[in-house]
Amino acid sequence: MSACIVGWAHTPFGKHPEEDVESLVVKVTQDALAHSDLSASDVDEVVLGTFNEGFSPQGFPASLILQADNDLRFKPAVRVENACATGSAAIHHGLRAIESGQARLVLVVGVEKMTALSGPEIGDTLLKAAYLKEESDIKGGFAGVFARICDLYYQKYGNQSDALARIAAKNHANGVHNPLAQIRKDLGYDFCRTLSDKNPTVVGNLKRTDCSLVSDGAAAIVLADEETAKGMANAVRFKSVSHVSDFLPMSKRDIIHFEGCTKAWQQALQRANVTLDDLSFVETHDCFTIAELIEYEAMGLTPPGQGYRALEEGWVYPDGKLPINLSGGLKAKGHPVGATGVSMHVLTAMQLSGTAPAEIQVDNPKLGGIYNMGGAGVASYVSVLETRD
């Protein structure tokens, strides 16, 4: 790889009734440029990632970024979409512009405004990332999709409700220390494990604490080629990236194994010439707790069906051998769909630059891994980032 992240910005995730897509985009654009000590005139290209699909009435959003600064006028700007992996898709678009030599500096923004819709409307909008010819009748929207995955996993490997509760409790405990997180409350294992009025069933075996949050928010990064990044204070290098896509219909895959996730991790680690053991931490896509459990197995942390061991043996906690979702993950930080992939890269860059909140800052990190997923294991993006000497 020959590109670096040289600046970033991130709104708090949550319910922001006073904000719209435009105001969120403008804020993180201005903040990311300031953080990278660049002016808008320095930017060669602009990429906006947003899922939308009905979340916002504003279509054709790419040029909204120009509202942040008049000097962005006449820069090439494009909107990128790939379901819940939209943010990483936008980053890949920016990386290709740099690697092709067409750009030295690329501004990438991810955004979503979800909370203006009602609960049923949100469910219908998210379900558009499923294969509607076969999956549109699944009750519970996308939560129902992952409840079906959870049922199949339990049928093969046994009930893993304890493991799911541990994942939820871990990520909420981590989110307490992240000022950008939507929920900053340590719910505890017992609360996450127990069905109650405050933690009811959403669908199937998934309780409220098993499901990521409906969120508004935006995040931005500035990408630079290696030469331009020299001497820039905040530079964090891409060591490798990978993107693979799998069939959209769940019926064409063994859905409990996330094979695309496995292939993406294998490609990224091979390209970086490292192993999973070399990583200092990972941000992974816990849209539902069952997804994080399966991702432990897909990335190679445990054999299939043994993801629970990563929790029982403490590997994925802040003091474990591979801390996962120190940010709180989608579970506590929030999941504004188009912003999530960019957010993961911002939080990883903060860790590698030593600027994460002290309570979740890894000691002397060298390599950070990111897994961002679109749909039910359909689009898989992995990044391996490293500190820049």
Automatic annotation (TrEMBL):
EC numbers, comma separated: 2.3.1.9
Keywords from the named record: Acyltransferase, Transferase
UniProt cross-references to InterPro entries, sorted A to Z: Thiolase, Thiolase-like, Thiolase_C_2, Thiolase_N
Domain Thiolase C-terminal: 251-386
Domain spans labelled Thiolase N-terminal: 4-182
Gene3D superfamilies to which the protein is assigned, alphabetical: 3.40.47.10
Record flagged with keyword Transferase: yes
One Pfam family matching this protein: Thiolase_N
Domain of life where this protein originates: Bacteria
GO MF entries: acetyl-CoA C-acetyltransferase activity
Entry annotated with the keyword Cell membrane: no
Name of the molecule in the record: Acetyl-CoA acetyltransferase
